[in-house]
Amino acid sequence: MNTHRPSNLPWREPALLAKAFCLVLILSLLTACATPHARRTDVLFWNQSQREANFRAMETQYASNVVRHGVAHPLSAGMPLTPHFADGTTLDSYMAEHRVAGVMVLQHGKVRLERYGLGATPSTRWTSFSVAKSFTSTLVGAALRDGSIHSLDDKVMRYIPKLAAGAYRDVTVRQLLTMTSGVRWNEDYVDPTSDVAQMYEGARQPGVPLLVSYMSKLPREFAPGERWVYKTGETDLIGILVERATGTSLAAYLSEKVWKPYGMAADAIWLKDGVDGTEAGGSGVSATLGDYARLGQFLLDGGVADGKPVLADGWLADATHKHADIGVPGRGYGYQWWTYDNGDFAGIGIFGQLLYVDPARELVIVQLAAWPVATNDAQATARAAFVRAVIAGAED
């Protein structure tokens, strides 16, 4: 079982999990491709120019569903913010060095910083990688309010009956959200026999997503709720659960509940399995910089869209506080959100993606990037310094 490396930087994504997720993306989303020449290893081995070209056009590479937008809600301008880097770094030099395609900062609902790089523009859709996990969690909150999901204490098998015969029989929706199922899992990204390498392999069964077939055969290691272990396969199960509960795709449900009523400015996309059409709950959203920021503002606004609450009562407070100890001081894991003891929370993705929410300061910080590596200490440290610089600038 893999664990996080300790970090004294509260905004860092654990490097091992990020690298592992890179393999997961390859094995899951790229299994069935929209283009005949694409290979499942492409994302990992794209060179820098390919990353910068394809991260803005994932729908041209792989099968996807469209998240339709409605009437756009304009973002008004606030007082310009200048990030204050402790070492004198400038925003321009930071973005150039770390191959950043865009940064946006909202405070009190107004745009205080918006900058683009790598030829990106306000209409560019950029891939989320694992930030999508937090999107999927938000849809669980919507399904709870609708009554499509009755309770987080429901057994997962209520929504995915194929799991009734295996180790997931007694696992609840809440335990999936917090990755505390107790089901044995190996997320070793260098081991070709690991679960993360095998979860999208094998023969397909009619009407059963390949992932569900694999997960139904896993053995138990701990009692449900006893221990947190990062399992990307469980996030994909959450996506399937939402689809089964609501009777619609993740893309369509996101459009209905958030994208249209909150006034996102552009269509988004969600990558899917090109054979059975199942979207991966843990990855694959592409949206504009402004719409990622709007999602953060939607959360700061209490999950209200068009004057109506979208999420179950108490959902946001519950989802964004620590439910599981991840072994890193000051940090934890909520419902598919990385949590911080100061009340902040974040969705984090490989290659530099970040959606960071600071409720106390009413700040939303978004970064989209094409780092030259999935993650490493230098890149993660620089991103943490950027967040600190924004907070320092916001307090001027």
Number of spatially distinct domains: 1
Order of strands across the main sheet: 3-2-13-12-11-10-9
CATH homolog superfamily: DD-peptidase/beta-lactamase superfamily
Average pLDDT over all residues: 89
**Straight-line N-to-C gap:** 45 Å
User: What is the N-to-C order of secondary-structure elements (H for helix, E for strand)?
Assistant: HHHEHEEEHHHHHHEEHEEHEEEEEH
Query: In the CATH hierarchy, what is the architecture at level 2?
Result: 3-Layer(aba) Sandwich
Uncertain runs with pLDDT below 50, 5 residues or more? 1-16, 18-37
Outline the biggest β-sheet.
Answer: 7 strands, antiparallel
CATH topology category name: Beta-lactamase
Shape: globular
How many E strands? Answer: 13
What does this structure look like?
The protein has 396 residues and is an alpha+beta fold. It has one domain: Beta-lactamase (3-Layer(aba) Sandwich). The protein is 31% helix and 15% strand. It contains 13 helices and 13 strands. The chain has helices at 15-28, 42-45, 48-54, 91-97, 132-146, 173-177, 195-198, 210-215, 232-246, 250-259, 289-300, 315-319, 377-394; strands spanning 64-67, 100-107, 110-116, 125-127, 268-271, 285-288, 304-305, 308-309, 331-333, 338-340, 345-349, 353-358, 363-369. The chain has a seven-stranded antiparallel beta sheet with strand order 3-2-13-12-11-10-9, with helices on both faces. The protein has a four-stranded antiparallel beta sheet with strand order 1-5-6-4. α5 (132-146) crosses α10. The longest helix is centred in the C-terminal third of the chain and has 18 residues, at 377-394. Mean pLDDT is 89; it is low at 1-16 and 18-37.
